[in-house]
Each structure stands twice: as C-alpha cells, then as structure tokens.
C-alpha cells in the first residue's frame, strides 16, 4: 500500500492534529519520502515506519511532541543530525536493521537531550570493539542501549509494543469509566422501573391469593348448604315413616 493512502486510512475521518499514534509499517515510500506526513500532525507522539524503504530521515516533518520513532529495517546510513531539529523531544529511537556502520553516525544524537533508549540491533556498528561502552560515552543521556542498561539490566519498555500498550491502557481506562457510568445509569433506570413493577407484581399476587381464598370460602359455603339440605331431606323421610304406621292402624280398625 502506498504511504499516502495508508495515512488517509489511519486518519479514520480525524484531522491530523487529533492523531497521537501513526503506524505505517511495510508501506511503500516514494524515493525515501513519507508522503502525506506533514507538520499538521502536531500532537503525534508515536510514529512507526518499519520496512518502508527509507534511506534518510531528512524528509521528516517537524514533530515537536514525537516521543517514540520506529525506523527498523530501512536503509538509513547517516544524516541523523536532523532529528534534533525535527523531533527534539524523542525519548525512544529504534534504528535496528539499518546501514549504520560507524560510531560517528550516531554521535549527532547527543543533541537529543531527552533520548533514553536507542536500538541498533543488526546494524554493522554493533560488531565494533567496545561498542556498548563507546555508545554510552558518546550519548551520556542514554539509559538503555539495545534494550539493556549499562549494567545489562533489561529495559521494562524497550520496544514499541510497550509504548503502545501504555496508550491502549489509557484508552481502556477511559472505556472502563464510560462502561461504569453506563452501568450506573442502567442500574438507576432499573431501580426506577423495577419499583412500580415490583409493586404491580405484589398486588397481583395478593389479588390471586384473595381469589383463591374466596374460592375456598365459596366451596366451603356450598358444602355447608348441601349438608343442610341432606339433613332436611332425612328429617322429612323420618317423619313420613312415622306417619305411615298410624295410617295402617286406622284402616285395620275399620
């Protein structure tokens, strides 16, 4: 993909001044130029241009807030002095896999006073005697070289992934806050809606219980009436049996 088109896609309908992170890895640069990247990206803090065919950083725009610059696997062999002017606040610089052969090539980075981490993996300069010791002497502001400090202790965030994770964590925190607010709103809505509904359900249950009780009472009442009717019938039959013998006696006398 062409560099300019990739930048357009990365913007996602945002303005350049809204972008803090820009990843252009494996795009095609035009004659070593990063087309589409201008000084309008004034808030840019992280720029990754891995394997894009860069031969120089001379065409970088002025990016005052840029902190981390990924230039791995390009064909840069010098001209690093422009970085102090273009990106004066760099803290991390990755030049792994470039054509850097001499210590004098990295010496201009001394002007980057905020530079804390420098990576030169797979550059020929790393094969020189006392390479690490000499680089730390040339660049006293450095804390980490190729991911390790002077005492060979590994850097906690020595690569782009660590930095990007930091940005993602901030976004996650914002998302978590938004989710919590939405959850609180939903709980409030639930409480407001649930209260009258619970009251309605309670009233319905009481109504059903009253209906059940009424039904039972009616049934008991009906049973009582039936029992009384049966008693009356038995009493009538008994009186009738008493009268019958008397009638028979009277007939015999005649």
Q: Care to describe what's here?
A:
The chain is of the alpha/beta class and 254 residues long. It has 2 domains: 156 residues, Ribonuclease Inhibitor (Leucine-rich repeat, LRR (right-handed beta-alpha superhelix), Alpha-Beta Horseshoe); 96 residues. It is 47% helix and 7% strand. The protein has 5 helices and 6 strands; from the N terminus they run H-E-E-E-H-E-H-E-H-E-H. The chain has a 6-stranded parallel sheet with strand order 1-2-3-4-5-6, with helices on both faces. The longest helix is centred in the last third of the chain and has 94 residues. The chain starts with a helix and ends with a helix. The relative contact order is 0.06. It comes from Aldrovandia affinis.
Write the layout of secondary structure elements.
Elements: H1 3-11, E1 21-23, E2 46-48, E3 68-70, H2 83-86, E4 92-94, H3 103-106, E5 117-119, H4 131-138, E6 144-145, H5 160-253
Parallel strand pairs: 1-2, 2-3, 3-4, 4-5, 5-6
**Total domain count:** 2
CA-CA gap between termini: 137 Å
Morphology call: globular
- Structural class, by secondary structure, is alpha/beta
Class of the largest domain, according to the CATH hierarchy? Alpha Beta
Spell out the CATH superfamily of the largest domain.
Ribonuclease Inhibitor
Give a count of the beta strands, DSSP E runs of length 2 or more.
Answer: 6
Q: What value does the Rg take, in angstroms?
A: 46 Å
Largest sheet: 6 strands, parallel
The largest beta-sheet arranges its strands as 1-2-3-4-5-6
């Amino acid at each position: 993909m062409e560099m300019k088109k990739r930048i357009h896609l990365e913007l996602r309908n945002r303005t350049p001044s809204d972008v803090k992170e820009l990843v252009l890895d494996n795009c095609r640069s035009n004659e070593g130029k990063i087309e589409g990247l201008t000084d309008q990206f004034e808030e840019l803090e992280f720029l990754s241009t891995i394997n894009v065919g860069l031969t120089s950083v001379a065409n970088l725009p002025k990016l005052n807030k840029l902190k981390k610059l990924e230039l791995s696997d390009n064909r840069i062999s010098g001209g690093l002095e422009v970085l102090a002017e273009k990106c004066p606040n760099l803290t991390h610089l990755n030049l792994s896999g470039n054509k850097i052969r001499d210590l004098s090539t990295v010496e201009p980075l001394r002007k980057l006073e905020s530079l804390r981490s420098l990576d030169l993996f797979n550059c020929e300069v790393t094969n020189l005697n006392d390479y690490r010791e000499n680089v730390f002497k040339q660049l006293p502001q450095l804390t980490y070289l190729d991911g390790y400090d002077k005492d060979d202790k590994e850097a906690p965030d020595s690569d782009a992934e660590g930095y990007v994770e930091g940005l993602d964590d901030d976004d996650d925190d914002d998302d978590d806050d938004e989710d919590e607010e939405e959850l609180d709103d939903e709980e409030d809505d639930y409480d407001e809606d649930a209260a009258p509904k619970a009251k309605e359900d309670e009233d319905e249950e009481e109504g059903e219980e009253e209906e059940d009780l009424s039904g039972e009472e009616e049934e008991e009442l009906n049973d009582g009436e039936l029992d009384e009717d049966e008693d009356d019938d038995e009493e009538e039959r008994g009186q009738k049996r008493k009268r019958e013998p008397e009638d028979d006696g009277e007939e015999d006398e005649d």
